[in-house]
Design goal:
CATH superfamily of the largest domain in chain B: Nucleotide-binding domain of ferredoxin-NADP reductase (FNR) module
Oligomer: heterotrimer
Number of domains of chain A: 2
Number of strands of chain B: 15
Shape of chain A: globular
Largest sheet of chain B: 7 strands, mixed
Number of helices of chain A: 13
Number of helices of chain B: 7
Radius of gyration of chain B: 19 Å
CATH architecture of the largest domain in chain B: 3-Layer(aba) Sandwich
Helix content of chain B: 10-25%
Strand content of chain A: 25-35%
CATH class of the largest domain in chain B: Alpha Beta
Largest interface: A-B, 64 and 51 residues
Largest sheet of chain A: 8 strands, mixed
Strand order of the largest sheet of chain B: 10-9-8-7-11-12-15
Structural class of chain B: alpha/beta
Order of helices and strands of chain B: EEEEEHEEHEHEEHEHEEEHEH
CATH topology of the largest domain in chain B: Rossmann fold
Chains: A alpha+beta (about 375), B alpha/beta (about 290), C alpha+beta (about 160)
Shape of chain B: globular
Order of helices and strands of chain A: EHEEEEHEEEHHEHEEHEHHHHEEEEHHH
């Protein structure tokens, strides 16, 4: 089923989801930053805003238009709701000489994610694979992942650091959504083309104030998406990428990038697929209670590889290499897919603007050319 | 929406692999000045703890933390779970202060095991260094319980000083057996030590085994394993017949936390026991 | 004497040597026995021999005042030990003490040195073997220096 929904009727989608007991999470502004948070009304969306993104640069700007989804991804990812930055897994209470486990009985909302981009859908699929499909699953992720309704938004205007086309993940959502929306402004007005991807999606579609899509709307959406493919801010040549990175383990380019890298871990925190976590066992103020907390971790810290006596990856170079090589090469061996979806967040949110696509390209071009010298100061 | 799968293997409490099962300390024995062994019994649930030699458990101390520790007991007697631990960090030091009757959390058994079945018909060479004797002890038990299935059994064990040698009484018993070759050496000979002085790799050259029909299992600090693997190769042992057990930071033990990565490998689920020929290319890589 | 010749002929250390060279080396050899705690050689003494250990165990050690003897490495049945006879000023750098009754074949280094100077082929063959032996000792010593097992134990 494909519908056209006039822009003025977008609220009916919100209302339908709310009446179906979904908590809606979507893009909204908080202190002039774009975040994913609970919203209830279309006016909570960053209407009329667009973004400018480049290496180490993110600006939200007023476009003067009326579009609801005229920006791409910000620093938040949906991981925040499925695999939160910090999560208490369970508590323990002392009991005699032993202890007992108090399970986390916290109710998890039925949630609708609105505004999920194609690259983010792929990121969720990647985390599903890692956290649910291996020999062991993360029970908390499983709980959070259940009952998620995904409303995808196709990227008509890709961002300055986007390269989903290179990674084969976008700009159009082709699977993994319940509903997919393309926002269109043309001669016939401002409207949304809505497709359903699941039965649950169809059920919601029946309740909203749309009309059956005409051929013109469908063709316009197709054309916009085709054009979007050519508007990627970045490009990554993935040809032979696993072997390329494996055989360049000793490349001097790692030294060059390590001179700029602050090891701050921003790239890992904004990455929608990074899954490293720490398990912290914390004892309560009164000694008879304890809890286990799962927290995001980053391979840029020394603690990440610490074993008694010292860390395995002591240099900044080794940690950057681990991150990039894991993402683009060893991830393929581990999970049969790339760990990068081309969302560009690591480029945008790197305080010094290190660009994963540029680093791969530099390594590619360096092959057989000997030592790479650091770029001259500008 | 992804199809949600049920957990395939129960290792912890209920079906959550992050929740430890409770075990009570039955016996506590000090092995050396910084090393101790504990015999554990489950407080509830299955009475037997089946495991394969080389596997490990995540051991939890209430309110302090959790660490991976290899199982060092007898796999043919699964009613006793035994761990030998060196007190070096917060958690292991806290363990060291526990007494019989107290409880610990256990998640496991985890990881790959030594190829005791594949080694049938072969000579078996065990090369242990320091605390690396603990993960190899279950192999000795297994081999002795199935003695007729193996050729020569050679244990080469290196420790820092004579007082660092683990399981001394047991080693004496094994040394007196005619169907075992047990050679021990220390890096630093002290006091009344009458045995070998020198690194454990010195023992490889003159150990009696058939290099063409042998399985070698090496466990100890990474550098000791590297040199031992070289020593075994000098003796003509094929890299595919050599196995090593790796150590990395582990927070979950089940391939989810990301800490134990060594290139494409997760040491917790692809290891800790690896075939040397599978990892020898990355074994010597720095900071991998 | 025949058994001495047999031991040397079959010893892996001399494997691949021409018979005439083995014969010459055998001519420089003699059977020796050291009782427990008897010294094979002492630091500073003239180094004119090396040893094939036929049976027993010896320890290479050095004596540190106020600390006593420090064990460096043990040598066992089948090992070849001693190379100071090969390098000027031909003095032992360490002590070698039998820790149990030890039978060995002592090779006269003085006699061999002269022959090696005349017969470079024998010289090369023996040098090659001792180079390998020294490399093994160096590797083992380096590993000992790593102190790989760490730990809190007092020495």
């Amino acid at each position: 089923m494909i519908l056209v929904l006039e822009s003025g009727n977008l609220q009916s989608l919100f209302d339908t989801l709310i009446s179906e007991k979904y908590q809606i999470i979507g893009p909204t502004l908080d202190n002039s930053a774009l975040i994913y948070d609970e919203i209830t009304n279309v006016d909570d969306l960053p209407v009329g805003y667009t973004d400018e993104q480049d290496g180490g640069r993110y600006r939200l700007v007023k476009s003067g238009g009326k579009k609801y989804f005229d920006y791409v991804v910000g620093q938040h990812t949906w991981k925040r709701y499925l695999y939160p930055p910090e999560k208490k897994l369970f508590e323990l209470k002392r009991k005699g000489d032993g202890f007992e486990i108090v399970e986390n009985k916290q109710e998890i909302h039925k949630r609708a994610f609105i505004g999920v981009r194609a690259c983010e859908i792929e990121a969720i699929r990647i985390q599903d694979e890692i956290l649910l499909e291996g020999p062991y699953k993360d029970a908390d992720y499983e709980r959070c992942r259940q009952n998620i309704f995904i409303v995808a938004v196709n990227c008509v205007r890709p961002g300055g650091t986007c390269f989903c086309v290179s990674m084969g993940t976008g700009p159009r959502a082709t699977k993994g959504f319940d509903l997919a929306i393309t926002e269109i402004v043309d001669n016939s007005g401002h409207y949304f083309l809505i497709e359903s991807g699941t039965k649950a999606g169809e059920k919601i579609m029946k309740e909203i104030k749309g009309k059956e899509a005409d051929q013109n709307a469908i063709e316009t959406a197709d054309r916009l998406m085709k054009e979007a493919e050519n508007k990627m801010g970045r490009r990554l040549d993935t040809d032979d990428i696993k072997e390329l990175l494996y055989r360049n383990f000793e490349s001097s380019r790692w030294e060059v990038v390590a001179q700029r890298c602050l090891n701050c871990g921003n790239c890992t925190l904004v990455c929608p697929t990074c899954f490293c976590i720490n398990i912290e066992d914390i004892s309560g103020l009164e000694v008879n209670s304890a809890k286990r907390v799962r927290k995001w971790d980053s391979c840029f810290t020394l603690d990440h590889s610490y074993i008694y006596g010292g860390s395995v990856r002591t240099s900044a170079k080794a940690r950057y290499r681990q991150w990039l090589t894991h993402k683009l090469a060893s991830w393929i061996d581990q999970f049969g897919m790339s760990g990068c979806v081309g969302c560009g967040r690591c480029i945008t949110w790197c305080p010094v603007g290190i660009d994963i696509t540029e680093e791969v390209q530099a390594i590619r071009e360096s092959e057989g050319k000997g030592k790479i010298m650091a770029d001259k100061e500008e | 929406m992804a199809e949600i799968q049920k957990n395939k293997k129960a290792i912890g409490f209920k079906d959550d692999p992050m929740m430890p099962r409770q075990f009570m300390i039955q016996r506590f024995r000090r092995d050396t000045v910084d090393t101790f062994s504990m015999e554990l019994k489950p407080v509830s649930g299955p009475k037997k703890f089946d495991f394969k030699p080389g596997q490990f458990n995540m051991i939890y101390v209430f309110g302090v933390g959790e660490v991976p520790i290899s199982i060092s007991g007898d796999p043919t007697r699964p009613e006793k779970l035994v761990h030998t631990t060196r007190a070096v960090g917060n958690v292991t030091k806290a363990m060291d202060s526990l007494k019989s009757g107290r409880t610990l959390g256990v998640r496991g058994p985890l990881g790959t095991s030594w190829p005791v079945e594949e080694a049938e018909g072969n000579d078996v060479v065990l090369v242990a260094g320091g605390i690396g004797m603990a993960p190899l002890r279950p192999v000795m038990y297994y081999l002795l319980a199935h003695r007729e299935n193996y050729g020569k059994i050679v244990l080469l064990y290196g420790a820092r000083t004579p007082s660092d040698i683990l399981y001394q009484k047991e080693l004496e018993k094994w040394r007196s057996r005619l169907d075992l070759e047990v050679h021990i050496t220390v890096d630093r000979g002290t006091g009344s030590w009458r045995g070998n002085v020198g690194v454990v790799t010195n023992l490889i050259g003159r150990a009696p085994f058939d290099h063409l029909n042998c399985t070698a299992m090496v466990c100890g600090p990474e550098i000791m394993m590297r040199f031992s693997a070289l020593g075994l190769q000098k003796r003509g042992v094929e890299p595919a017949d050599i196995y090593v057990s790796m150590e990395r930071n582990m927070k979950c033990g089940i391939g989810l936390c990301g800490h134990c990565q060594m290139g494409p490998l997760f040491v917790c689920k692809d290891g800790p026991v690896f075939r040397y020929s599978d990892i020898k290319e990355i074994f010597t890589r720095r900071e991998y | 004497m025949e058994s001495l010749a047999k031991v040397l002929k079959e010893h892996p250390f001399l494997e691949g040597l021409e018979q005439r060279h083995i014969d010459f080396i055998t001519g420089c050899g003699s059977n020796v026995v050291f009782k427990k705690d008897e010294f094979l050689f002492r630091e500073g003494d003239e180094a004119n021999h090396f040893y094939f250990i036929r049976h027993g165990k010896i320890i290479i050690e050095t004596y540190i005042p106020q600390k006593g003897p420090i064990a460096i490495q043990t040598r066992e049945t089948g090992d070849v030990t001693g190379w100071s006879w090969l390098i000027p000023p031909y003095r032992w750098h360490f002590d070698a003490r039998a820790v149990e009754l030890t039978r060995a074949i002592a090779l006269d280094g003085k006699c061999l040195r002269g022959k090696m100077d005349e017969d470079h082929e024998l010289g090369y063959e023996l040098m090659r073997r001792f180079a390998r032996l020294m490399a093994q000792r160096l590797e083992a010593t380096r590993m000992q220096l790593f102190d790989v097992y760490g730990g809190n134990t007092k020495e």
